[in-house]
Amino acid sequence: MNGRSSVPAPDSSAPRPPKSQIGAQVWVRKNLFGNWFDTLLTLLSLWLIYQIVSVIFSWAIIDAVVGEGPKVCEGAKGACWAFIQEMWELFIVGLYPFEERYRPYTAFLILVLLCAATFVARVRRWPPFYLLWALAPFAVFFLIRGGTALNLPLVDTSLWGGLMLTLVLAVVSLGLGFPLGILLALGRRSRMPVLRGLCVAYIELVRGVPLITVLFLSSVMLPLFLPAGIDIDKILRALIGITLFAAAYLAEVVRGGLQGLPSGQEDAAKALGMNSWQTMVFIILPQVLRMVIPPLVSTFIGLLKDTSLVSIIGLLDLLGMAAATTANPDWLGRLVEAYVFVAVIYWVFCYSMSRYSLFLERKYKTGH
What we know:
Elements: H1 24-31, H2 36-62, H3 81-93, H4 102-118, H5 121-124, H6 128-145, H7 162-188, H8 193-207, H9 211-221, H10 234-260, H11 264-271, H12 276-291, H13 293-306, H14 318-325, H15 335-364
Helix pairs in contact: 3-7, 3-14, 3-15, 4-6, 6-7, 7-8, 7-10, 7-14, 8-10, 9-10, 10-12, 10-13, 11-12, 13-15, 14-15
């Protein structure tokens, strides 16, 4: 035996189906115009789509107004994109001081470069690369906050807002919640009854309440248990609440992967002389995390959108900034334009994450 797979290669001489049975035209004829009822539904759907798209196209492009100042939008029949043109930076960084806005843009550039580097296989194989991802949440937070340690002016968190705040909440909470979720998943499968019971109680308790409840508890109840004179920043309280909430959901995702992995993997590792921690770190977890890529990314996307709930505790994230900017007397009634702009931003981030998840699924063949 030469060690090669004995699976026969596919026969390239096998007959292919005739062209009359494959292709886009065949699919359209079979699925959209297969009979009179399908044809009627297809034509009705096309008419409805045309009516909706034509109205949106007229409002967003044909009748839209672009310019400077609120006066250009007086009497406009379509969208007033002059509002977005003037307010877009508030949507991105909130009330962050103008002379210091290079700092959130630098932090955003750091995240973009790390995400781009993730697509390069040679960079991913570089061991310190994962350390950079682990340090990224802290670097982003402290770069935006500033302080004497960094020789940067301290920017109060009450001035944070917009997309910057949304990304800070999502990136930092996921960066801290992911390892905590792995530990909770391992603790729930532990053979020590006390540790297993504590992990089960925490996971089920947190998963049994909505995020808005966790945010209220972290924002309102947490200060009541602190000693007099000690106050935790509101954003830090929100980060604690979202991190604890994300950890519980990520723990269940990882636990599902642990249950789906054959027990023979652990037995084989023990046969090679590996201890429990070596088996978990080098054998079990790499396979589990590959298996649970789809639900992990789904959880990440859900958490990114759930950060909009922080507006209820007085934080102006991306969605909260949309409502705040339209309260300006010069731009009253422009809530639709604000929500459309916010929806496009959310869609870009969520769609990008979903496409990257699909790329990883195909690369690592998570369905097998």
